[in-house]
Design a protein that fits this description.
heterodimer, A: about 300 residues, mainly alpha, 13 helices, about 0% strand, globular, B: about 250 residues, alpha/beta, 4-stranded antiparallel sheet, about 40% helix
Chain lengths: ~300, ~250
């Protein structure tokens, strides 16, 4: 039971991280720096609780804010480049953050940062935050800024010509993504009780991308689903021991061939929405038409 | 004069796409720009909408210089455009595309959207939706509102693009070859749509290769050839202009 709870807690943190990647991704920005933002949030919140005795919730929020501030500053030069170059810049950023943390004695340097107070309700906090994020993404989908995000992601130049300030939109998306990643880091730190810079290497950033692509990039349910399933699958494959990672890899390859758009597509979400509407048809009959289910 | 283009020059790596072109667009005019392929018509549109900067010269919009302004700032001033090759946000619905048109006229930000402190955001969203619906009715495809934009036939995608541009509530609308790829019936419908837009009080600057359409509805025609303006005048004058005939058909031997 404890084992299951721990796996599901980690899955929750991974969901938060996948969503932190997905938000800037909506505007066409591919970031390999999410593990870096996560580590900033983890260290900042750990310093708050360990060195200053702050309670858990404000500490995690400060973790998120610190990551967002760094994200904002990094975003200013990062926005002038795109595609593969942005990928490289964020990759470099992630490594810089790691190396900086290795060299700060105040937070334990390479030896790591021990003695972080354990949060026994991590499961609750993680999934509480996911719930808030679901509400956020759902409202975003049917809002002015959400449409601007999608427009910038699909055709930057056209979006700018019809009046979208693409610099502002990208900066908002990038630093909000960093904020979410920082909060994820804070939750992670108080679950592990001990953090070290090596926990946040670039392989983790790649993992968050894999979650998103696997789950589906058209809608935010994709990264949620992807992170959850891909965290659980290797755990349930433990009985085949050292072959499990091979099977995990094979699963990814098969997926990309059979369903390249990811498991959850926009159509599947719309189908579920319409199905729910039919089920509760009488309840929502008060002037709602398909496609605007939750906007009121 | 709503738009005044003063002697602009545009180089692309040493290639001169526009050479000293001056152009004045009168308030409420339906002004066409014609010319053979490669004459610099679309480049001119890109300069007006701010996608490129001019190499030399000035562009004034309502007596105010707009050089150096970003495209989204020009959109806010009241300039909107469509593209030669339709550029819709393909995976979004038709209605969402048109709703995006009013982005620069609305304000709701990310945090306000999430926290919904007041009902202002919902109110704004509702007005945006109604306006977009009205423009879709105006161009004649309200029944397509919920479809994914990329699934529409070509002619209807153009109409969506025009509706999106109108959603910005522009004073000056730039249409880049709107009739390209349309059949005769669709072209006729488009013709009356453009006239209708113009009669609403919007200035229209039109690039078009379909001469029947251009001669029928334009008030003024400017002719570009090899990056220079070679003629300007009423349709009847342009049809007789020897320089224009030479540009299109070649010199008589």
């Amino acid at each position: 039971m404890d084992y299951l709870i721990s796996v599901i807690s980690i899955a929750g943190i991974n969901i938060i991280m996948a969503l932190s990647f997905y938000l800037p991704f909506m505007t066409g920005q591919i970031s390999l720096g999410q593990a870096g933002f996560m580590s900033i949030g983890a260290y900042a919140s750990a310093v708050c609780t360990v060195k200053f005795g702050l309670p858990y919730v404000p500490a995690v929020l400060i973790g998120g804010l610190s990551a967002a501030i760094v994200g904002f500053i990094l975003g200013i030069p990062a926005l002038r480049i795109k595609g593969i170059y942005l990928l490289l810049l964020t990759l470099g950023f992630g490594e810089i953050v790691r190396v900086v943390f290795i060299n700060i004695d105040y937070i334990g340097a390479a030896a790591g940062f021990p003695g972080i107070p354990y949060q026994e309700h991590t499961l609750l906090y993680a999934y509480g935050m996911i719930l808030i994020l679901i509400v956020f993404f759902n409202r975003l989908r049917k809002s002015r800024m959400g449409r601007a995000f999608q427009a910038v992601g699909s055709d930057e130049n056209a979006a700018e010509v019809i009046g979208v300030n693409i610099i502002a939109v990208k900066l908002v998306a990038f630093s909000s993504g960093a904020f979410i990643a920082g909060m994820g880091g804070g939750i992670f730190a108080h679950y592990q009780e001990y953090i070290e810079p090596f926990m946040f290497d670039v392989m983790h950033a790649v993992e968050f991308i894999v979650f998103t692509i696997f789950g589906g990039i058209q809608i935010f349910w994709g990264p949620i689903f992807g992170a959850f399933v891909l965290t659980l699958v290797p755990e349930f494959l433990r009985f085949i021991q050292e072959w499990r990672m091979e099977l995990y890899g094979a699963l990814l390859i098969v997926m990309m061939i059979v369903r390249p758009q990811g498991i959850i597509s926009l159509d599947s979400v719309k189908m579920v929405e319409n199905g729910l509407q039919r089920l509760f048809g009488k309840k929502t009959a008060g002037g709602l038409s398909p496609g605007q289910t939750e906007s009121k | 004069m709503i738009l005044e283009i003063k002697n602009i020059i545009k180089y692309f790596d040493g290639f001169c796409a526009l050479m000293n072109v001056g152009l004045g667009v009168e308030e409420n005019a339906l002004h066409a720009i014609i010319g053979p392929n490669g004459a610099g018509k679309t480049t001119l549109f890109n300069l007006i909408s701010g996608m490129f900067d001019v190499s030399e010269g000035k562009i004034d919009f309502r007596k105010r210089p707009i050089d150096g302004l970003k495209p989204h700032q020009r959109a806010r001033l009241g300039i909107s455009r469509t593209f030669q090759i339709v550029r819709l946000f393909g995976q979004m619905s038709v209605l969402e595309n048109v709703m995006l048109g009013s982005h620069c006229k609305t304000k709701s930000g990310l945090l306000k959207t999430f926290f919904r402190i007041s009902t202002k955001e919902l109110e704004e969203e509702k007005i945006t939706r109604e306006n977009a619906m009205r423009w879709l009715e105006f161009v004649g495809i309200p029944h397509k509102a919920d479809q994914v934009a990329v699934n529409l036939p070509h002619a209807e995608q153009r109409l969506v693009e025009i509706a999106r541009a109108l959603g910005q509530d522009p004073d000056l609308l730039l249409l880049d070859e709107p009739a390209a790829g349309m059949n005769p019936k669709e072209t006729l419908d488009l013709e009356s749509l453009i006239v209708k837009i113009n009669e609403m009080g919007k200035t229209v600057l039109l690039i078009e290769h379909n001469m029947d359409l251009v001669m029928e509805i334009s008030h003024v025609i400017s002719v570009l050839n090899f990056g220079a303006k070679i003629a300007e005048g009423k349709p009847s004058e342009i049809q007789k202009n020897p320089a224009v005939i030479e540009a299109y058909l070649g010199r008589k031997r």
